[in-house]
């Protein structure tokens, strides 16, 4: 069965979540494009979007429509040719609306897992819980045909392990999209020892069709993305521990967040990123990795405390940031959670100035991640930035260079442990999945 | 013999900021001034320069497609909104796609020549940021032949029309010769706009404009032969200019020395249902310029300033040829050699043009005239060019559609 045939009936489980809904948008447009081909006119296409609550599905309906509209507005050049034969559709607006109608018509929303029974391609993007995932796959395996392929969005649970527990016989592949899936180019593809070749081919073809950058990762818990991110985050947390005697806890969080964002020219500071992912998700992934890798170091008391206090980060349904390590107003950090006082301390300009004075200034002429993003000379500029940092005798420069070194060492470990095959693969994950301007393995040190 | 049977003057020119992407104050999701604001702002900007606004006899408003961008028709009704004394005075709205402003100038001049008014306040206006560009492209496509062309046309209908012209020019004159000329047009437009605080590209700080101008096209998302920098901007703005007879100048209280004489115009209309005879030429623009020169009894060498309709860089190059400054196929080299820069042999689009200042479509023709009037009366500020006694003329060439509706108008510095 080829990909076109498989795309006639697809299911996304956990469809109302941030990953599931994005995967839904991507697949819906591929199905709509197929449906528009003259030879497919009489075929029925169906995308089952399954989640646990009607309430969540209601939000998903609105989200899917808005996203498909955005997609259509961006692909109008192509859509005009796809709707060439429709003489009644003349203006862009008419063609865009027709595409949104055609693609929403394939959507089938519901809470019943049985909706998946005729699907040949099943995406699963529920929360990281091995037991629940196993249970779902076992049920699916009983209901669906023996030729159904399963693509899991897990970012930490080993694929072979899951496949074996659910008895899928190699019909499961790790297909780890990054948030938000519609925008992020990266998909980490994890094949287990027994993953069947046909599924590998289908996964590859689908990735190309979705214009994603596919990076292979070995079937070792955490894979490349979380394998790096978790340890990178733990490094920042251990630095906070070290710095808190000097800056107090709140100051130390501020310092490490600023070092990672401004000094290392990343899109957001490390604590903002943990908030973005969700502190509970961070904890959960650490636990999965700790269990499968047997590495006790993959634990953070600070993270456990934050979760216990129900300060969790994550996002609201509209995509805005929930408070976590940092407090947000219009998605900008305005305070830092003081774990001892159980409240947010506002970050005032005066306070920032005082802390900034202790870590020292950025190298002269340095511009932000955002400014560098579109800069054709960004490589040169980054090189100059780190060369200057290396020579500067400030605490900020020292912390930044230590962080850079650490981040590189984590990446090297991933290669030596066989998680990633090459340094290019690790760098590709950090650049495409985390929007870094440079890979963790670089010559800046 | 003069083309006009009496003297007509233009004075008190004014235009608003061209608002849209590029301006620091522009934010697509924040509320913005509406159509009536620009009409009022432009109108007041003009009449504040005269002593007796109550003596303005009539109004004319050029606008392309407010009915779609702003759901607004009956624009003449905003004439009395400008000033109380305009209540119950005549006002018409004229439309000729992106040459609506040009037609408004012509309508005003005709009214003076017909002895029906001594002074006419001529306004051009457009607000286009009300919808995303992909929908705006639908509205602007009305400048072409809807029932004959739109269905087979491109998502970005007009950019594609001129992309095809660029492609034809690459084939005919060579990519290496022509493409850098288009990029140079972009460079000049931005450099001039940086001297014009009202220009949409006034805040542009790009240090390598030529490289930007040479950006490879992206046919999947846009056009085959042009990039987005080859295009004029999506803009909101208004412009106003007063036309008056000698008697009219006296009545409204403007000294002749503060006005500029309108010596000739040509308005030329091509058939909307036929394709352009030659994609590598702006045939209608050329006819309009020739007629205007004949009627003014001057030659291109008598002009000291030119303002052409560079809705796209390729249109700018071809318009310079059509205005008689460069031979067929020589526009690109002419521009590359610096002839159209502020200190060149014929300073062109001195305030930034449609690419640098912006292109609030219905306002553009009027804005062009305001710039030429400002130049000839030495009020152009930082982008003022030298006006010599032996070359006291300036010309605008304003175009609607794909070289379909054209106005060329020639102005002369007063003695």
Automatic annotation (TrEMBL), chain A:
BP terms from Gene Ontology: fatty acid metabolic process
Cross-referenced InterPro entries: 3-OHacyl-CoA_DH_NAD-bd, 3HC_DH_C, 6-PGluconate_DH-like_C_sf, NAD(P)-bd_dom_sf
Record-annotated 3-hydroxyacyl-CoA dehydrogenase C-terminal domain positions: 265-319
Alphabetical list of Pfam families matching this protein: 3HCDH, 3HCDH_N
Transmembrane feature ranges: none
All copies of domain 3-hydroxyacyl-CoA dehydrogenase NAD binding, residue ranges: 10-219
Keywords for this protein: Oxidoreductase
A single MF term (Gene Ontology): NAD+ binding
Domain of life from the UniProt record: Bacteria
Signal peptide: none
Keyword Metal-binding: no
Name of the protein in its database record: 3-hydroxyacyl-CoA dehydrogenase
Record organism: candidate division WOR_3 bacterium SM23_42
Origin organism lineage: Bacteria, Bacteria division WOR-3
TrEMBL record, chain B:
Name the UniProt record assigns to this protein: 3-ketoacyl-CoA thiolase
CDD domains reported for this sequence: SCP-x_thiolase
PANTHER family: ACETYL-COA C-ACETYLTRANSFERASE, NON-SPECIFIC LIPID-TRANSFER PROTEIN-LIKE 2
GO molecular function annotations of the record: acyltransferase activity, transferring groups other than amino-acyl groups
A Pfam family the protein falls into: Thiolase_C_1
Stretches assigned to the Thiolase C-terminal domain: 275-412
Species, as recorded: candidate division WOR_3 bacterium SM23_42
TM region(s), chain numbering: none
Domain of life: Bacteria
InterPro entries in alphabetical order: Thiolase (IPR002155), Thiolase-like (IPR016039), Thiolase_C_2 (IPR055140)
């Amino acid at each position: 069965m080829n990909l076109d045939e498989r795309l006639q009936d697809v299911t996304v489980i956990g469809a109302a979540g941030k990953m599931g809904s994005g995967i839904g948008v991507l697949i819906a447009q591929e199905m709509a494009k197929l449906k528009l081909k003259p030879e497919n006119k009489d075929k029925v296409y169906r995308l089952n979007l399954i989640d646990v609550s009607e309430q969540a599905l209601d939000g998903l309906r609105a989200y899917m429509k808005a996203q498909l509209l955005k997609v259509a507005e961006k692909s109008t050049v192509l859509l005009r040719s796809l709707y060439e034969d429709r003489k009644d559709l003349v203006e862009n607006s008419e063609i865009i609306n027709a595409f949104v109608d055609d693609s929403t018509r394939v959507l089938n929303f519901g809470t019943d897992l049985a909706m998946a029974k005729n699907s040949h391609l099943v995406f699963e993007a529920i929360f990281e819980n091995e037991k629940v995932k196993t249970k779902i796959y076992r049920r699916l395996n009983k209901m669906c045909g023996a030729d159904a392929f399963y693509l899991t969005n897990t970012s930490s649970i080993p694929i072979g392990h899951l496949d074996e527990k659910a008895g899928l016989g190699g019909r499961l592949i790790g297909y780890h999209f990054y948030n938000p899936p519609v925008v992020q180019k990266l998909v980490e593809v994890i094949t287990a020892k027994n993953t069947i070749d046909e599924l590998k081919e289908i996964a590859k073809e689908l990735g190309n069709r979705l214009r994603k950058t596919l990076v292979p990762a070995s079937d070792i818990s955490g894979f490349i993305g979380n394998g790096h991110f978790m340890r990178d985050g733990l490094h920042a947390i251990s630095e906070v521990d070290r710095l808190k005697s000097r800056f107090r806890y709140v100051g130390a969080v501020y310092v490490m967040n600023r070092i990672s964002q401004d000094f290392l020219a990343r899109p957001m500071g490390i604590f903002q990123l943990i908030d973005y992912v969700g502190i509970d998700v961070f904890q959960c992934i650490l636990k999965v990795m700790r269990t499968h890798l047997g590495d006790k170091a993959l634990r953070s008391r600070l993270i456990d405390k934050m979760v216990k206090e129900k300060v969790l980060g994550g996002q609201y349904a509209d995509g805005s940031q929930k408070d976590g390590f940092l407090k947000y107003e219009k998605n900008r950090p305005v305070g830092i959670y003081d774990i001892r006082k159980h409240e947010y301390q506002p970050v005032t300009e005066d306070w920032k100035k005082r802390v900034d004075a202790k870590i020292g200034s950025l190298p002269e002429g340095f511009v932000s991640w955002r400014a560098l993003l579109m800069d054709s000379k960004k490589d040169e500029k980054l090189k100059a930035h780190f060369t200057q940092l290396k020579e500067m005798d400030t605490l900020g420069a020292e912390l930044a260079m230590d962080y850079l070194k650490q981040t590189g060492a984590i990446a090297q470990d991933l290669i030596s442990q066989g998680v990633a095959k090459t340094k290019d693969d690790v760098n590709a994950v950090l650049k495409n999945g985390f929007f870094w301007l440079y890979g963790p393995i670089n010559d800046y040190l | 013999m003069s083309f006009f049977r009496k003297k007509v003057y233009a004075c008190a020119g004014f235009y608003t900021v061209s608002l849209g992407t590029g301006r620091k104050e522009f934010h697509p999701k924040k509320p913005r001034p509406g159509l009536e604001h620009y009409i009022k702002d432009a109108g007041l900007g003009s009449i504040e320069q005269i002593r007796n606004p109550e003596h303005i006899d009539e109004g004319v408003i050029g606008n392309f497609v407010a009915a779609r961008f702003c759901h607004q028709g009956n624009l003449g009704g905003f004439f009395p909104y400008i000033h109380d004394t305009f209540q119950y005075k005549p006002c018409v709205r004229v439309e000729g796609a992106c040459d609506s402003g040009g037609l408004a100038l012509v309508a005003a001049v005709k009214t003076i020549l017909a002895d029906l008014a001594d002074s006419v306040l001529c306004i051009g206006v457009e607000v286009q940021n009300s919808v995303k560009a992909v929908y705006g492209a639908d509205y602007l496509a009305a400048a072409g032949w809807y029932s004959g062309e739109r269905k087979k046309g491109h998502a970005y209908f007009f950019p594609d029309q001129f992309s095809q012209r660029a492609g034809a020019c690459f084939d005919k004159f060579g990519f290496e010769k022509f493409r850098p000329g288009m990029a140079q047009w972009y460079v000049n437009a931005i450099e001039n706009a940086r001297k014009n605080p009202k220009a949409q590209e006034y805040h542009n700080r790009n240090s390598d404009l030529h490289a930007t101008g040479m950006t490879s096209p992206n046919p999947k998302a846009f056009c085959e032969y042009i990039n987005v920098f080859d295009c004029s901007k999506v803009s909101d703005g208004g412009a106003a200019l007063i036309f008056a007879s000698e008697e009219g100048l006296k009545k409204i209280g403007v000294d002749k020395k503060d006005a500029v004489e309108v010596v000739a115009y040509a308005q030329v209309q091509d058939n909307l249902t036929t394709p352009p005879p030659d994609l590598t030429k702006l045939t209608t623009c050329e006819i309009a310029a020739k007629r205007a020169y004949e009627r003014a009894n001057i030659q291109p060498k008598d002009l000291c300033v030119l303002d052409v309709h560079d809705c796209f860089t390729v249109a700018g190059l071809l318009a310079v040829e059509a205005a008689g400054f460069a031979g067929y196929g020589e526009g690109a080299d002419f521009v590359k050699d610096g002839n159209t820069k502020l200190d060149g042999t014929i300073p062109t689009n001195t305030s930034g043009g449609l690419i640098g200042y912006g292109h609030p479509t219905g306002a553009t023709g009027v804005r062009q005239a305001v710039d030429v009037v400002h130049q000839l009366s030495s009020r152009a500020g930082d982008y003022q060019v030298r006006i010599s006694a032996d070359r006291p003329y300036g010309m605008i060439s304003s175009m609607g559609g794909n070289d379909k509706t054209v106005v060329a108008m020639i102005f002369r510095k007063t003695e």
